[in-house]
C-alpha cells in the first residue's frame, strides 16, 4: 500500500526541525520519501493543499483502564481520589468493561492526533485491554499494574508477589512485539506505596532480562512522599535508585515534588520523566519544575494521565498547559512552544526508546502522523506566524482530520476506521453503570488476568 500526501505543510521535527510545503510518500508501514514535489505512483493520494502534517503525538503516561471513570472522581486530591473512588472502580472491572474503557480512550486519542502511548492498566483483565490495542491500531507500550503491598489497597487488587510477577511475564511473552513491534510490554509497578521491595527488585531484574521499560508513578503528591519516607527511609527517587531501578529504561510519571538530589539522580541515571500538567493541576498535586529538569538535560515528555483525573486525553490541552503554567514563576520565555512541541513528539519517542522509529517525519521511520486542517477562525491569521507556536497555543483536537499509524489510516475525515464509534459509546455507558452498581453494593468481583 502506497499513500501519497501532496502539497501539505510538513512539520518534520527532524534534527533541523524543518518545516516546508511538500509531499510525503508512505509505503506499507514506513515513510518512503519526503520532497517538495514527488512524482510517485500511489494507491491513494491525499490532497494536502492548505493542510498541515505533524508527527503523531506521543503520550507517555495514560491509564486506558480509567477512561470509563471520567467524571466519577472530580474535585479530590490524589490519595483520597485513589482510595475512595478509583481503586474501588478498578477492582469492579471485568474483561468487557476493560475492553470498552480502552477502546473509548483510544478513540479519543486517535481523534486528537495521538499515535503512540505509554499506558498502565489495572491489576486484572489486562489481556482485554491488549486486545483493544491490537484491534484499534494504536502504537503502545503497556502492562498490567502491579500492587502487592499497602493497607489501603483493596483486597481485590492486592496481589501475591509471585502471582503479580507471573501474570506480568505471561502477558509480556504473549504481547511484546505484536504486529511487528507496534505493541510492546512494560512492567508497571503502580508506585512505591503499593509495592514491596521484593517485587520492585524482581521487576528491575526482569526488565533487564527482557530488555523492556519500567513505568511507575513517583513524587506526584506530598502525602505520597511522606509515606515513602516513613516506610522506606528515603524519598521516592532516591529509594528507586537505592534498589537499582533508576536507569534509562525507567519512565517516571509526574515528578512534581523533587529535590535537587533527586533531579541529579534522574539526569545521571538517564531516567525519563513524563510531565502531566492537566492531571497535576486537577488533583491539586502541584506544578512540576520542568524548567529545572530541562536545564539539567533531562528527557521530559508529556502525558494526559487518565480520564478519571484529567477528564480528557487531549495533547493540545497538555501542550498549552505545559507551556503557560511555568511562565508566572519562571518568566515569559520559560517553556517555549518549540520546546513543548518537541516534548509531545520526538521527546515522547525517546522515552519509549523508539526515537529511531517514530516521533518525526523522516524517510525510513514508521508512518505515524496526523493531518490537520487549520483553516478556521481560531488559527488565523496564518501569515507571518511561527507554525509551531500556532500548533501549541491555537490549534485544537477538532482540527485533526486524519490519523495514520504504522502506515494504516485509522481515522479519515474524522471518521474512525478501526472501531465502531456508536458501539463503543453505547457499551461504555453500559459498562460504567455495571461497575457503579458493583461498587455501591460492595460486591466482590473475581479477578483474573
Automatic annotation (TrEMBL):
<dbReference type="GO" id="GO:0090614">
    <property type="term" value="F:5'-methylthioadenosine deaminase activity"/>
</dbReference>
<dbReference type="InterPro" id="IPR011059">
    <property type="entry name" value="Metal-dep_hydrolase_composite"/>
</dbReference>
<feature type="binding site">
    <location>
        <position position="61"/>
    </location>
    <ligand>
        <name>Zn(2+)</name>
    </ligand>
</feature>
<dbReference type="GO" id="GO:0050270">
    <property type="term" value="F:S-adenosylhomocysteine deaminase activity"/>
</dbReference>
<keyword id="KW-0862">Zinc</keyword>
<dbReference type="InterPro" id="IPR023512">
    <property type="entry name" value="Deaminase_MtaD/DadD"/>
</dbReference>
<dbReference type="InterPro" id="IPR006680">
    <property type="entry name" value="Amidohydro-rel"/>
</dbReference>
<dbReference type="InterPro" id="IPR032466">
    <property type="entry name" value="Metal_Hydrolase"/>
</dbReference>
<feature type="binding site">
    <location>
        <position position="90"/>
    </location>
    <ligand>
        <name>substrate</name>
    </ligand>
</feature>
<dbReference type="GO" id="GO:0046872">
    <property type="term" value="F:metal ion binding"/>
</dbReference>
<feature type="domain" description="Amidohydrolase-related">
    <location>
        <begin position="52"/>
        <end position="410"/>
    </location>
</feature>
<feature type="binding site">
    <location>
        <position position="220"/>
    </location>
    <ligand>
        <name>substrate</name>
    </ligand>
</feature>
<comment type="similarity">
    <text>Belongs to the metallo-dependent hydrolases superfamily. MTA/SAH deaminase family.</text>
</comment>
<feature type="binding site">
    <location>
        <position position="217"/>
    </location>
    <ligand>
        <name>Zn(2+)</name>
    </ligand>
</feature>
<protein>
    <recommendedName>
        <fullName>5-methylthioadenosine/S-adenosylhomocysteine deaminase</fullName>
        <ecNumber>3.5.4.28</ecNumber>
        <ecNumber>3.5.4.31</ecNumber>
    </recommendedName>
</protein>
<dbReference type="InterPro" id="IPR050287">
    <property type="entry name" value="MTA/SAH_deaminase"/>
</dbReference>
<keyword id="KW-0479">Metal-binding</keyword>
<feature type="binding site">
    <location>
        <position position="305"/>
    </location>
    <ligand>
        <name>substrate</name>
    </ligand>
</feature>
<feature type="binding site">
    <location>
        <position position="305"/>
    </location>
    <ligand>
        <name>Zn(2+)</name>
    </ligand>
</feature>
<feature type="binding site">
    <location>
        <position position="63"/>
    </location>
    <ligand>
        <name>Zn(2+)</name>
    </ligand>
</feature>
<keyword id="KW-0378">Hydrolase</keyword>
<comment type="function">
    <text>Catalyzes the deamination of 5-methylthioadenosine and S-adenosyl-L-homocysteine into 5-methylthioinosine and S-inosyl-L-homocysteine, respectively. Is also able to deaminate adenosine.</text>
</comment>
<dbReference type="Pfam" id="PF01979">
    <property type="entry name" value="Amidohydro_1"/>
</dbReference>
